[in-house]
Specification:
endopeptidase fold (from Nostoc punctiforme); 229 residues
Amino acid sequence: MRSNFQRTSLMVLSLIVCAFVQTPESHAFGKGKRLAAEDQDKAIKVERKTGEAAELETASWLNAIKTLAQDGDWLVVRGYHSTDDLVAFGTNSAFSHAVVLDLTQNEIIEAVQPAVRIQTLPEFLANANRVRLVRPAGASTEGGIERGREAVESARSVVGQSYDLFGAIGIPSDKRFYCSELAVWSWGIKVDKFGALNVVAPKDIHKYGNILFDSKDRDGVAEQLPAAQ
């Protein structure tokens, strides 16, 4: 098990790298328990899959999300870039990024360096090795659909605001966002607290809701949704 000092050092190193090398899937950090041995190689490096099989698999992920999701849900992914590898290794995590889903517009809202931005959902999924769909707890109560749309509007309202580089290691700003902070903040969950142990990592997002879909790592096989009851 890594010490707190080692984990914090790795997070700081990750942030420094991400300040100069940016991709849309690589910008959230947090503390983490050690992964199972069979998952540790995946945390260090994943190989980008290409070709027709990968395209069909991405299309099946898109279909699953359009079938199961609603506005305001969260998507948590593992990206391919070297910074994703560094983040996954430094945080002992299978995930590296989290976003807010705008299903109506077929887009996602994400906090990346240098600022919060919008990206199309198909493009976002094509650059992921794994995707998890999480339904926020508040979306499962009466009025949840309306609250989900309000969460989308909240996230859209801060498009253009700066990425919170230091907030991702526990030195937050109430005027900036890191990726998973934006996701939970859009639902009114305040996580601006000092200290690395208070950082909300992408892998922790499911603690604020329920997992509806998890593609697992790409394997070239299209996802099959369960038959309707």
